[in-house]
Amino acid sequence: MPPSKSQPPKNWRLNAIIARSVGIIAIALGFVLGMYGLDHPESHWLQTAL
User: What is the value of pTM for the model shown?
Assistant: First the structure.
């Protein structure tokens, strides 16, 4: 049995764009929730800001 070589994904550029977009959205959402936590200290989102 020949050793199996791992093939790179065929749509690596599309996968990279999707991963980058998800990362940007996650960072932006964390920023928005953190700002909300600073504006409303009684909410549980304050821990996100700190």
Answer: 0.63
